[in-house]
Amino acid sequence: MFNSFEPQVLFQEVPDHISLCFTITGCPLRCKGCHSKDTWPSTAGTHLSDERFNRYLTQYSQYVSCVLFFGGEWCLEALCSKLKKARESGMSTCLYTGLNDVPDTLKSLLTYIKTGPYIRTLGGLENPNTNQRFIELANEQVLNIKFQESSLNATT
Ligand code: SF4
User: Distance between CA 95 and CA 113 in Å, rounded?
Assistant: First the structure.
């Protein structure tokens, strides 16, 4: 099963990009303090077939520069086929995963990855103490500082 909610256009989850974001349901990690418990049942949302995904890509391609998946690494084949299509369409790609690492086959289709489970006491990417990492894979550069800066700008 590879279900998603309706996609959203997001501005802050991938630095310097406007992203078309797909939340894939069925996350098996069950982090304490998860803000997205509605995404846990794999039956939530609607099946994201290649056909449905391609339709969204065509619909949004002139408005976005990146395709972002919240989860989905538990359905490797389905996720890889979507990422491949996104890359062929000239998009950057990003995965937010709660895992600390993912298979190389998946990384080879990603421009960016956010790794690490959510740990309430350590916070998210805007927190300097977080366990999570936002990485640009081509040069393995950790870009957490960009999230900390934009969080500071939002509060000043
Ligand atoms: S990885 Fe994300 S969606 Fe999954 S349980 Fe953890 S915080 Fe929730």
Answer: 5
| Distance from residue 33's CA to the centre of ligand 1 (Å) | 9
Per the listing, tokens 């690492």 go with: 101
**pLDDT tens figures, 29-72:** 888 888 889 999 999 999 999 999 999 999 999 999 999 999 99
Q: Is domain 3-155 given the CATH code 3.40.50.300 in the classification?
A: no
Q: Which residues line ligand 1 (CB under 6 A)?
A: 27, 29-31, 34, 36, 39, 71, 98, 117-118
Whose tokens are 């995904």? That residue is 53
100, with CB counted inside 10 A (0-12, 13-18, 19+), is exposed
The alpha carbon of 62 and the centre of ligand 1 are apart by a number of angstroms equal to 30
